Amino acid sequence: MANSIVATADLDRKDLGILRLLDADARRPYSEMAKKLRMSKDAVQYRVERMKEQGVIRGFYAVIDPSVLGYMNYRFFLKLRGATPEIERKIIDYFVKDPRYWWVDSADGFRDLGVGCWLASAGEFAEEKAKVLGRFGQHIAKLEEAVFTAFYLYPRVYLEPKITSKIVPLVLCQGQKADVDELDWKILGLIANDARASSIKIAGKAGVTPATVLNRMKAMERKGVIRQYRAMIDLEKLGYYWYKVEFTLRDYSVKGKMLEFFRHHPNIVYAYEAIGGADLEVEMEVESYAKFREVLDAIRAKFGDKIDTFQHLLWYKEHKITYLPHRAAEHL
Fold it and tell me: For the chain, which residues make up each domain, given as ranges?
């Protein structure tokens, strides 16, 4: 597994170790990474900057839980019709430019586009659906809608196959609403897409002291507003592919066991439960289609008698990923 990454992206094990640490905590100091990897601080910093120049690291972002801010995480899947590449680009740009949409991905398979948005109510979602159909309906063959009830994020253990520690996922969309003020929103807006920004830099833009910034960030971490800081890694540069599988279940009681299986598989990076979606959805990052089939067949071998049907697609282009609530965007 690691050899495939090295051959494709010209990275060595130390680079992969750095990526693994940044995937787990993008605000981790260079000195801490150096100690864990038995390298000098300057060497770690040099490698990080090199991977940024290569495009392996596209940036650093904060994982923010929408439910704790009073938002629900809605999703549209689109199958297009009669859409030229130019028209498809216009549709994509609409979602990318709208600050309410936090992810926009193109797919190969039975769908063409997936988008996620943070909205405060089902009524607001209905209005947005009508707006999308009113603007692009002639080019939408099918629109599927859903609202996430659980969003599982797993660490990219495959970057360091020797890791044997227990994988504990982050679970979003199940939090209790917390109190945040305008300064909190401003800080969220500043770190959402710049998670390694220093407290001094954030303080300068927020008009407060660095100590205040750190205290506010720690408070939002305790409240569950900020769940993690991660590196944005370009899978194509690693030679990896991003597949999604949706399962309809014959026996709903197997959900917990399937989630436990996902938690222990190094290639599985996301899982979802949603109202309006499949019974259980999972996403994996793998170095080949053969590896994808290997992981899928392992799931089927263990739970096949509990699974009714499944379908899969390939996410081939990520146009936008930002856990940035649009209210925070107003402070940028």
Answer: 179-223
